[in-house]
Amino acid sequence: MHGDPSFDITSLDTLLARFGSPPPASLYKELDYIDENYRALIDASPFFAMATLGDKGMDCSPRGDPKGFVRIVDEKTLILPERRGNNRVDSLRNLLVDPRISLLFLIPGVGETLRVAGHARLSADPALLDSMSMNGKPPSVAIIVTVERAYFQCSRAVVRADLWNPASQVARNTLPSTGTLVATIAARRDEHFDGVTYDKDLDERVRTTLY
Question: What's the CA gap between 78 and 105, in Å, rounded?
Fold first, then answer.
């Protein structure tokens, strides 16, 4: 089923009628800066998802490092190191077109998440990049975020997903491997990709190219 189009919601009034008014706490929690409590959440987070928008559409991609890797310069400024990746630079391309950015911070074992939105610029300042080095390797660029909105998200989604329960973890070998994913898509294009070798070397490649 795809949903009867006659029931599509096309107006704000219709949408709001299905939910009602937000409780006071949902409104009080929003700030236009990072206070001491939100700072504590960011400092404890080793992972965030980053959403951007460009001329080819939207993108959402993961970022991770040891907790505390996001630098909080002041209550309005965050600096995010852009580490080694797949060199597609989709998010960075988007930020050159549209500087708007949104971040969702997750903390292992904690139900609440933190949402931060603002505008970003990219910096290649050598001194800044050197100051964010890991294992002697600086990030390729730094993303400097000016904070415009920040608020925590309640734990319902994480609780519903049972996200941090070890018993709910999925064994990686029950899903298609990364080599299988790429090889299958390549075959549809009448091209060859050695997925077996890719999978064989994957763990070592990831371990030696983190930074």
Answer: 13
The secondary structure of 23-59 as a DSSP string is: PHHHHHT-BSS--HHHHHHHHH-SEEEEEEEETTEEE
In this structure, the number of other CB atoms found within 10 A of the CB of residue 41 comes to 19
- pLDDT for 165-209, tens place per residue? 999 999 999 999 999 999 999 999 999 999 999 999 999 999 999
- What single-letter amino acid sits at 106? L
pTM more than 0.90 = yes
Domain ranges of the chain: 25-161, 170-208
Give the list of residues 6+ apart from residue 211 with CB closer than 8 angstroms, or none.
83, 84, 134, 135, 137
Report how far apart, in Å, the C-alpha atoms of 141 and of each of 60, 85, 132, 133, 184 are.
Answer: 18, 12, 10, 11, 33
**Is the CB of residue 152 less than 8 Å from the CB of residue 38?**
yes
Residue 123 host element (H or E): strand 113-123
Reported CATH class of domain 25-161 = mainly beta
